[in-house]
Amino acid sequence: MKKTLILLLLCLSAKNITAQVSDKYKTLDSALTYLASNNRFMGSVALRDKDQVVFSKAYGFAEVEKNTKATPKTKYKIGSITKMFTSAIIFQLIEEKKLALDTKLSAFYPTVRNADKITIANLLNHSSGIYNFTNDSTFMDFAEIPQTQESMLKKIAAYDAAFEPGSKSDYSNSNYLLLGYIIEKITKKSYPENVAVRVIKKAGLTDTKYYGTINPANNESFSYAFEGGKWNKREEWHESVAYAAGALQSTPDDLTRFARALFEGKIISKNSLEEMTRMENKFGKGIFTFPFGDKKFFGHTGGIEGFSSSLGYNPEDGAGFAMTVNAANYDTNKIAIMALSAFYGQAFNFPEIKNISVDEKILKSYTGVYATPTVPLKMTIAYENGNLTAQATGQGAFPLTAESETEFIFEDAGIKITFGNNTMTLHQGGMKFEFKKDTP
């Protein structure tokens, strides 16, 4: 969706697994089973050693309401990992001489601000300066409603530029919506068709596709948030809103197979891969790097609805890691660290879960709307069914877990909130923000 490893959102655990867990991974399996059994995690994890999957197991439920247990074949929405697929298709079109990195956006969509200055390369590495439409305070008003290309283009074209193209990089989903539209314009085929033929078929994937309304009969998972002492189903965003920026679903096994195929030259050429993985301002072209000890992984994270996902691949030793999550009340970065520690035979800390009970009167005293001059978004703290939730302007609510009477966390995003007298301090990613209550 950030520490040593960066991968930049129930009562009983499932017992199914593709093969018996080897001794090497028993501690990892025990840790994930422990988290699932304590309402901290539901999802699936896979580890690949070159062409062989060495660990693959699912935990929790694909559909809580019907007690449908997840399996390694259960499909989860992967959010922004979709951007790796989109980028790969763009590089294929460049190889086919149908596009170039220096092609201007104005050749396709001249109404977008600075379109005559923005290149395909700018879109790929988020240096276009196009405002990220998911940051719009009205985003949740249309996230669940079908959108046409025309309606989304109109929204994107209406935004002022966030910065001058090429002056810096700042993550924007708008870039990849536009890249998806460009793919369709050039190929005269839909984005799902392009993904199916140009990536899924080439990589030999069996459980990856463009999502629609979730269908449990097709082994597709719902996503959940832990509220009021139970997992509650999250709303579904329409696929036309996520589109080429985040509308694919997959499994960890398939994701590691995709990464392996990408780096083995089965999808794009060596020269294209070098360009894709060349970092500028810490951004590749549809891909990022992250360290694990002295290892360098390439990949992406994803977050949509209540789903989060991570994919990483180390081309030096062929190690692949993927995690798809449909519910978390725990820092999933820690899960990634545990999984890769197990892969490399390193010790890791077994998860420790704190269960702190805070008086209802104290919890309710923290509710209200908080603001800070350093961030344009406001934060609403609400009390629901015995728990606090937090919600930033235009974003979904997330649960807060008490560590003390004044300190609360949302581990999945690495957020810590400390309450004072009509104040709130938010810590995330090494940054600190001081909020004051607007409406006590």
TrEMBL record:
User: Highest taxon of the source?
Assistant: Bacteria
Protein's UniProt keywords contain Protease: yes
Q: Which InterPro entries match?
A: AmpC-like, Beta-lactam-related, Beta-lactam/transpept-like
Q: Which residues form the Beta-lactamase-related domain?
A: 43-330
Keyword annotations of the record = Carboxypeptidase, Hydrolase, Protease, Signal
Q: Name one GO molecular function term.
A: carboxypeptidase activity
Give the signal peptide as a residue range, or say none if absent.
1-19
Q: What is the protein name stated in its UniProt record?
A: D-alanyl-D-alanine carboxypeptidase
Q: Which organism is it from?
A: Flavobacterium pallidum
